[in-house]
């Protein structure tokens, strides 16, 4: 299709995420994705610094993942999961159970749905309906998930009056990971640990569960917090008879430098949500996992997506996790972390920059003022990278396969965008 016709059709009919129906800035047509590069309709190649919203950890058009989809397509594209089962789902569930230590696996459509299922599990298991979380969090765009996102500074504040009222502790101090130009790592804040103690004790009788993003707060601010706070929440949940829900949708499968965010703290949740990187960015699928004890106390779980356990998605997810286990992802993520810390150091202390921080394969430049997204994207694309900033955050989560030269393209593009900021 001619690029201009494609743009016209897009403007006439498509509604993009977090955008007006008729956006002021047109979307950029992509005609090919291969390796870690996107090819636009005008012929430009861009290094993808976003992994398609953190999902394409292996890059694009990986032959093993392509083969898994083709092979499964020749057998069965979809079949209902009510009363039926199939090999791709069974294999995937076994692999997830072994990876997480959580034996019961509910396959969902998306990350937001996985969080909805986790909330339902907690409510059905305990008979209580309130949750405790921390400010600065993000858990998805459906109503249950929105209700545990940051109620003031989050992107869902427009719906505050119609969402269930949960309990919010203060934001965890952002005191973990690498800070270019800032030596050392602070010890856990004892005052914040006491704050968690007080909040859980005050509301324990009303609570079904504690829900948090382990160590990394993603779309709520790209903040990294000390594992000691997560450990304390595990201890408090045990002390007060609450469930701990870990939203690992963004952090799962190696992104933070550990296989799961909970591994930084050495804890296992009662319920875990995974998604995004689960299928390597090929198809939409997520999962909610839980202990045998939680599953037993729930009995019949009242949820059932039409496309639950989709065989195509399950087959490519199993292939993606097999590939992850076989590749040296820890070394790859450490290499990316070092390259991002070194490459973004130039932005630390620059006018208009509040902070630069890095953890695993996540690099963030936080600015003083909100970014002009269209203007920033022009700059980074001119430098050969694809990034999607929001709010005051210019960040990257590149595929693990991203090599040194392409990482340099990403960091140079980010530095160039930071250099355009006003003090």
Automatic annotation (TrEMBL):
Catalytic activity reported: (8S)-8-amino-7-oxononanoate + S-adenosyl-L-methionine = S-adenosyl-4-methylsulfanyl-2-oxobutanoate + (7R,8S)-7,8-diammoniononanoate
Gene symbol of the encoding locus: bioA
Coiled-coil annotated spans: none
UniProt pathway: Cofactor biosynthesis; biotin biosynthesis; 7,8-diaminononanoate from 8-amino-7-oxononanoate (SAM route): step 1/1
Biological process (GO), any one: biotin biosynthetic process
Protein name per the record: Adenosylmethionine-8-amino-7-oxononanoate aminotransferase
Subcellular location(s) of the protein: Cytoplasm
Amino acids binding pyridoxal 5'-phosphate: 111-112, 247, 305-306
EC number: 2.6.1.62
CDD domains: OAT_like (cd00610)
A GO cellular-component term linked to this record: cytoplasm
Quaternary structure and partners: Homodimer.
Positions of the record's site feature: Participates in the substrate recognition with KAPA and in a stacking interaction with the adenine ring of SAM: 18
Binding site for substrate: 53, 138, 276, 304, 388
Cofactor: pyridoxal 5'-phosphate
Modification N6-(pyridoxal phosphate)lysine occurs at: 276
Family: Belongs to the class-III pyridoxal-phosphate-dependent aminotransferase family. BioA subfamily.
Keywords in alphabetical order: Aminotransferase, Biotin biosynthesis, Cytoplasm, Pyridoxal phosphate, S-adenosyl-L-methionine, Transferase
Domain of life of the organism encoding this protein: Bacteria
Principal location: cytoplasm
Function: Catalyzes the transfer of the alpha-amino group from S-adenosyl-L-methionine (SAM) to 7-keto-8-aminopelargonic acid (KAPA) to form 7,8-diaminopelargonic acid (DAPA). It is the only aminotransferase known to utilize SAM as an amino donor.
One example GO MF annotation: adenosylmethionine-8-amino-7-oxononanoate transaminase activity
InterPro entries assigned to the protein according to its UniProt record, in alphabetical order: Aminotrans_3, Aminotrans_3_PPA_site, BioA, PyrdxlP-dep_Trfase, PyrdxlP-dep_Trfase_major, PyrdxlP-dep_Trfase_small
KW Transferase (keyword) present: yes
């Amino acid at each position: 299709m001619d690029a201009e016709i494609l743009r016209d059709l897009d403007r006439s009919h498509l509604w993009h995420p977090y955008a007006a129906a008729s956006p002021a800035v047109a979307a950029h047509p992509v005609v090919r994705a291969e390796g870690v590069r996107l090819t636009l309709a005008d012929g430009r190649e861009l290094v993808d610094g976003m992994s398609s919203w953190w999902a394409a950890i292996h890059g694009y058009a990986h032959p093993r993942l392509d083969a898994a989809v083709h092979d499964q397509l020749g057998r069965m594209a979809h079949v209902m999961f009510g009363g039926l089962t199939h090999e791709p789902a069974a294999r995937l569930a076994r692999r997830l159970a072994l990876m997480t230590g959580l034996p019961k696996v509910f396959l969902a459509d998306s990350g937001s749905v996985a969080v909805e299922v986790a909330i339902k599990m907690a409510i059905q298991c305990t008979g209580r309906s309130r949750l405790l979380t921390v400010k600065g969090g993000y858990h998805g765009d459906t109503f249950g998930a929105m209700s545990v996102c940051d109620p003031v500074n989050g992107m869902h504040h427009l719906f505050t009056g119609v969402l269930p009222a949960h309990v919010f502790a203060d934001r965890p101090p952002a005191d973990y990971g690498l800070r270019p130009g800032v030596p050392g790592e602070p010890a856990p804040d004892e005052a914040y640990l006491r704050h968690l103690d007080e909040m859980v004790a005050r509301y324990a009788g009303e609570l079904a569960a504690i829900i948090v993003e382990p160590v990394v707060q993603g779309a709520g601010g790209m903040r990294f917090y000390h594992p000691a706070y997560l450990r304390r929440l595990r201890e408090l949940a045990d002390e007060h008879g609450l469930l701990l829900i870990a939203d690992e949708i963004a952090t799962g499968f190696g992104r933070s430098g550990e296989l799961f965010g909970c591994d930084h703290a050495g804890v296992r949740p009662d319920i875990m949500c995974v998604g995004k990187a689960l299928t390597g960015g090929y198809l939409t699928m997520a999962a909610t996992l839980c202990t045998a004890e939680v599953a037993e106390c729930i009995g019949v779980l009242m949820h059932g997506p039409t496309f639950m356990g989709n065989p195509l998605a399950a087959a490519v997810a199993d292939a993606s996790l097999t590939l992850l286990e076989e590749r040296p992802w820890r070394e790859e993520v450490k290499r990316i972390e070092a390259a991002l810390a070194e490459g973004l150091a130039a932005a630390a202390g620059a006018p208009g920059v509040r902070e630069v921080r890095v953890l695993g394969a996540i690099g963030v430049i936080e600015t003083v003022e909100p970014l002009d997204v269209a203007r920033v994207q022009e700059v980074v694309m001119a430098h050969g990278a694809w990034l999607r900033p929001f709010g005051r955050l210019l960040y990257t989560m590149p595929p693990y396969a991203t090599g040194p030269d392409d990482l340099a393209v990403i960091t140079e593009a980010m530095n160039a965008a930071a250099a355009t900021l006003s003090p």
